[in-house]
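WARN no homologs supplied; continuing
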Amino acid sequence: MTRRSTAALLTLTAMAVASGCARSKKNETNSSSAGASTPTVTASTGSASESTASSSSPATYSRAESTFKSGDYPGAAELFTRYTEGNPENPWGFYMLGVSSWKSGHPEEAIKAFDEALQLDPDHRKSLFNSSRVFLEMNRPQDALERVDRALGKEPMSNEGLRLLGRIRYQLGQVPDAIEAYHSALTVDPQDAWAMNNLGLILLDQNRSEEAIPPLARAVELKPHAPVFQNNLGMALERSGYPVAASKAYEAALALDSTYQKASVGLARVTGGAQQAEQTPIDLVTLSQQFQDEMAGWKSDIPNDSSDVEPVDSTNQSSSDSSTSESVTDSTQPLGLSDSSRASVGEISDSLEDCQHD
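OK structure emitted
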C-alpha cells in the first residue's frame, strides 16, 4: 500500500468514528406534552423536506410542532417519526405523527400512529376522536363508532364526542340517532355552531328544508364569517321558497370567499330566469330565537350527576392538543375542528375544516 493510500484510509476511519459519536449524543429538553420531560433526539440519516432543517439537526418535539404549525405536514410527519423513534414513551408524539400523516394524505399511516398513542394511553381523547375522523374518511364508520364510544364512555359530556357521534350515526344511515346525537351535543354546548350546521345538513338531505333554516340561521348568527354556513343557509332558504333571502346568503358567502363555487352556482340559480320574490319576507332573527328556545327544552341522555365526569379540555394537555382544539376561525388551530354530515346533494357544502381538512 502506498503512503498516499494509507493516509486516505486513516482519514476515512477518523471521519466514521466522529460521525458515530455525533449520532450517539443526546441532549435533554422539556416538552410541553402532558407536562412531561422528553428527550431531544438526534436526527437519523436521510433526506428531509425542504422546510425542515438538515438531517443532522435534532428532531425535538417543539421543532416538529413548529413545522406542523407552518403548514409543512410532510415535513412534520418526518420529524415526528424521528421524534417518536427516540421517545417511544410519549403518546403525544404519536398523536402528532398521526395528525401530520393525516394532513399529508396518508390515512393508513395516521391510524397506525394513533394506535401507538392509544397503546400508551388507552384513554387518549384526541387520538380516539381524530382516529374516528380518519376512519370516517376511509368509509369505515363502524371503526369510527368504536373509538367514539370509548371516548364517550370516559367523558359522556364531551360536546366534541357527541357531535362526532352524530356524524358517524348519519354515515351509518341512522338518521334519527344522528339527529339525537346533535341534540345532545347542543344540550352540552348551545353555541356549537358546527353542530347546528351539521344538523341543518341532515335536515336538508332529508328534504326538510324549512326545518333546516332555524339551526342554520343560528349558526350564521354565531359565526357570520364562515362562508360554509352562509352557503348552507342559502340552500335551505332557496329550497323553502325564499329566493331573495337565499341570494343574500349566497352573496354573503361569496363576500367571504370569492372562489366559493357552490355559492356562486347557487346565486346564479336564484337570480337567473323568472324567479319570483317571496310574498312574505322571512324573519331569520325570530327563527333563530325559536331554535334557541327549542334547544332549551331538549332532553339528553347525559347523566344528571356529572361530578365524577372530567369536563372537556380540563386536562393538562400538550401544546399540540391546544393547536387542534375546537375552533373554526383561528387558522392556527387546523385540525379536529368540525364534523359534517356528508349530504348527498351536490350543492350543499361539506364542512371540511377538520380534515382540510372536517
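Residues 193-300+336-358 form a domain with the Serine Threonine Protein Phosphatase 5, Tetratricopeptide repeat fold (CATH 1.25.40.10).
OK
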